[in-house]
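User: I'm writing a tutorial on reading structure tokens. Could you give me a worked example: one chain, its sequence, then its tokens, then a sentence or two explaining what the tokens reveal?
Assistant: Sure. Here is the example chain.
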Amino acid sequence: MAKGCAIFCAFGFVGLMIFCGVLAAVMPKSEPLTEAQKAERKQHVADDEKLTRHKRYVRELITEQLKAPSTAKFSLESGWSKDNELIVRGYVDSQNGFGAMIRTKVYAIHQNREKPELVYLSLGDNVLIDKVTK
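And here are its predicted structure tokens:
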């Protein structure tokens, strides 16, 4: 019994080694990144960090406005507009003053891609910040 198990393990190991060798031979080789590609990748990472940071900031501001902030469940998306504005939009589900769960739309605009500033924030029909139309 032990001899059969040892043979089975040996064949399994050899098979695994052959599979790994074939896989390594078939996988395409990656080319080193050019300086332009590295810079572009670095910019994407920086943009993603800004999106995440500003989405979190919007969540904090909205949470302050809710009747039951501990019940808040957010679904927010963020991205860059063609005018280079950072847009955060989506909704928040939270309890109202009577304990019923309600869904409210959230919309925010940050201007200036390099150092974004919140210029518009709305929660449902309530405009909390509006530096755009002034």
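What the tokens reveal: Residues 40-134 form one domain. The CA atoms of residues 52 and 125 lie 25 Å apart.
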